[in-house]
């Protein structure tokens, strides 16, 4: 008897869930269709809640400002743009379902995002099958554009994937060079969080630092979500390292640096752009003083062309942090809009009627050929979909703020 | 430098925290045979209650000597209210239902509490800074800080008080009776509903003590902090023998020390480099649990049924 009621309960729940999902997707479709016939949607996929949301929101509003500018200045005559921002919660599975819903919408022409390399891996195939352009302002894992064996033979796996950020191959090497030559550190302890991004970064740092003549005092891995790193800290203390390199996000690194310094180990923690956010300093407090992070690109505040962008961002009171990727998200969205314009111009000033099977492919071509002055510098892509604008910056925490200590271009 | 004393201290501290939370699981299980999976979230709300006292009630610049007891009170009140409220409105109506129903309710409640804090507590969608006690002391080769001392003292005081309460006080003996046989206890004139509320309240208060120590030690809290800590504390309760309050504390300490030792020393064993380090700590902790359950299914102290409460 009880078993039967369980079966009934399960089937009711399942049916309910299915109905709800069905409703959900139908609603999404409708909202895409509404509005005038010549409104195109640019999708955004980034973590908008939970961990990483500070940087994720910076991407969403970066795209929003680009779209507002395009509409205000009538960049593509007769065509308006709008943003459809989806929250991937930094989870690959959610990113994939967001990608599916974006490609399923008739009016969506391209997407900006995601923030995390691990999420990107689950989305690339979806976009490529639908021939829709995807530009990430922040993914830095080399595999995404240059294939699994990028160290030996580069091969582009997905022709619709582009990025305005440079890769970890450069970030890890840039950090190692600065640690060894700039900071004169000789013994590094390397820790990563086993994620695509963090492990990749740590591996490259490790290799470059050893190549320069530095010594690796030890390596370890942590789990995302861990809170207690006391045993790791004790090992670092014993190893006698004079710098700790961490590949991962600020959620863990802010705890590690705090516990490290509380244990009396006064060595700086050096990381990648995943921990370059104000949240890192807020959660680690005084312990973050002197810590370093590399980030792709140069700080938005120092770009002469980005002044207007920052002003708009601040005056609109947008949440999140524009400094890291806001400007790169702006340029990514602009690249899509310019590609639409090129397609419209080629079609005699009219928007091609078949968006799904005609315009999307033309936009992919257009982005590949992009060549314009964006607010972060020149926007153009190489044969792998990587940006040709390989700017990097080292930041250091000084009096509770990230401060750029070295900017430069780096080619490995 | 010999790291063993330091690593033992690390494990002991982590274990004390697990133990304090595990009390809540084990007491509730001992009396109503319910695994309260929302207990990790009660721990989390306790932390946010303490944070509220510090940031929104106390004037800025209050000395920590005054602030910590008040935070304990604030966190305790919030955690007890949530725990007792959960019992009254979520579990009591299901007391006679099949066991699966309250279990699923607990899981649902756990998600609901997380989302409530995430959506309605200001700034709780990411980690929030918590006042921490960072002054460090060197005792030989061991470095500990004020927050660690607070944790150890709080855990010891709470455990002794609980042991005394369960053995000596009238309510405590009534709890033991209810745990042994609720129906007979009721026939003897014990108000079992009240006893169950007391069990939830004690569990909630212990979780709040753990939550304040957590905040003081790690310096930040977030709405997901209860999930993993709750899971570990549940493991500790099972390891020690669920239903047994001494078992919960012992299980916590064993688990904490095992994790720390595994993270530190396993990769020094030849051929095991790949299986050591911080990221494998959880794996070894759960291996230990499986091993204990295989050899002693009732847990480390599971046989002392008379003391369970």
TrEMBL record, chain B:
Transmembrane annotation, as ranges: 12-35, 42-58, 64-85, 97-113, 149-166, 195-216, 236-258, 279-295
Location in the cell: Cell membrane
Keyword terms, alphabetized: Amino-acid transport, Cell inner membrane, Cell membrane, Membrane, Transmembrane, Transmembrane helix, Transport
A Pfam family that the UniProt record links to this protein: BPD_transp_2
SUPFAM superfamilies associated with the record: ABC transporter involved in vitamin B12 uptake, BtuC
Lipid bilayer topology: Multi-pass membrane protein
InterPro entries assigned to the protein according to its UniProt record, in alphabetical order: ABC_BtuC-like, ABC_transp_permease, BCAA_transport_permease
Entry superkingdom: Bacteria
Family: Belongs to the binding-protein-dependent transport system permease family. LivHM subfamily.
Protein name: Branched-chain amino acid ABC transporter permease
Source organism: Streptomyces tropicalis
């Amino acid at each position: 008897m009880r078993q039967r009621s369980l079966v009934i309960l399960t089937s009711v729940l399942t049916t309910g869930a299915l109905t709800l999902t069905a409703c959900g997707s139908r609603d999404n479709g409708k909202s895409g269709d509404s509005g005038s016939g010549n409104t195109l949607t640019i999708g955004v996929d980034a973590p908008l809640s939970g961990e990483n949301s500070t940087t994720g929101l910076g991407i969403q509003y970066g795209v929003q400002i680009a779209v507002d500018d395009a509409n205000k200045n009538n960049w593509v005559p007769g065509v308006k743009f709008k943003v459809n921002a989806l929250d991937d919660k930094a989870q690959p599975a959610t990113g994939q379902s967001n990608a599916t819903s974006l490609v399923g919408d008739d009016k969506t022409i391209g997407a900006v995002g995601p923030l995390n390399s691990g999420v990107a891996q689950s989305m690339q195939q979806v976009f490529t099958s639908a021939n829709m352009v995807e530009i990430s302002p922040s993914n830095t894992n080399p595999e995404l554009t240059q294939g699994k064996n990028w160290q030996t033979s580069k091969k582009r796996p997905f022709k619709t994937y582009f990025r305005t950020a440079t890769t970890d191959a450069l970030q890890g090497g840039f950090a190692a060079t600065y640690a060894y030559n700039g900071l004169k550190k000789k013994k590094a302890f390397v820790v990563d969080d086993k994620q695509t991004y963090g492990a990749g970064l740590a591996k490259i740092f490790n290799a470059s630092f050893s190549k320069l003549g530095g010594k690796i005092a030890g390596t370890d891995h942590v789990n995302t979500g861990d809170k207690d790193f006391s045993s790791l800290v004790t090992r670092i203390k014993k190893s006698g390292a004079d710098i700790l390199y961490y590949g991962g996000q600020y959620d863990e690194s802010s705890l590690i640096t705090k516990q490290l310094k509380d244990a009396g180990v006064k060595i700086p923690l050096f990381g990648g752009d995943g921990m370059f956010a104000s949240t890192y300093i807020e959660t680690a407090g005084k312990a973050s003083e002197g810590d370093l992070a590399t980030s792709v690109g140069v700080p938005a505040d120092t770009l002469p062309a980005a002044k207007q962008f920052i002003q708009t961002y601040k005056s609109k009171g947008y949440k999140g942090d524009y400094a890291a990727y806001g400007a790169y998200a702006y340029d990514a969205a602009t690249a899509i809009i310019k590609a639409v314009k090129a397609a419209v111009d080629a079609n005699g000033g009219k928007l091609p009627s078949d968006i799904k099977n005609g315009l999307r492919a033309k936009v992919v071509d257009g982005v590949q050929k992009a060549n314009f002055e964006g607010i972060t510098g020149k926007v153009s892509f190489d044969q792998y979909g990587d940006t040709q604008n390989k700017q990097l910056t080292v930041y250091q925490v000084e009096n509770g703020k990230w401060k750029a200590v070295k900017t430069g271009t780096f080619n490995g | 430098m010999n790291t063993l004393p330091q690593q033992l201290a690390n494990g002991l501290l982590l274990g004390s925290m697990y133990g304090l939370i595990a009390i809540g699981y084990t007491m509730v299980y001992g009396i109503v045979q319910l695994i309260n999976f929302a207990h990790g979230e009660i721990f989390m709300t306790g932390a946010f209650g303490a944070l509220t006292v510090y940031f929104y009630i106390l004037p800025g610049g209050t000395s920590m000597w005054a602030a910590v007891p008040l935070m304990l009170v604030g966190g305790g009140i919030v955690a007890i209210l949530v725990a007792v409220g959960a019992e009254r409105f979520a579990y009591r109506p299901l007391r006679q239902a099949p066991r699966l129903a309250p279990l699923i309710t607990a899981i649902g409640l756990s998600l609901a509490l997380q989302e409530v804090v995430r959506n309605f507590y200001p700034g709780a969608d990411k980690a929030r800074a918590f006042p921490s006690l960072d002054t460090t002391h060197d005792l030989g080769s061991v470095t500990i800080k004020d927050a660690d001392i607070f944790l150890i003292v709080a855990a010891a005081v709470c455990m002794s008080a609980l042991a005394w309460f369960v053995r000596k006080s009238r309510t405590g003996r009534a709890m033991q009776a209810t745990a042994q046989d609720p129906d007979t206890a009721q026939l003897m004139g014990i108000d079992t509903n009240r006893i169950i509320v007391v069990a939830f309240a004690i569990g909630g208060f212990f979780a709040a003590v753990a939550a304040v120590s957590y905040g003081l030690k790690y310096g930040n809290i977030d709405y997901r902090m209860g999930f993993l800590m709750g899971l570990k504390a549940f493991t500790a309760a099972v390891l020690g023998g669920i239903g047994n309050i001494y078992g919960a504390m012992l299980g916590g300490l064993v688990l904490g020390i095992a994790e720390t030792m595994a993270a530190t020393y396993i990769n020094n064993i030849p051929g095991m480099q790949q299986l050591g380090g911080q990221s494998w700590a959880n794996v070894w902790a759960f291996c230990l649990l499986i091993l204990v359950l295989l050899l002693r299914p009732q847990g480390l102290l599971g046989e002392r049924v008379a003391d369970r409460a």
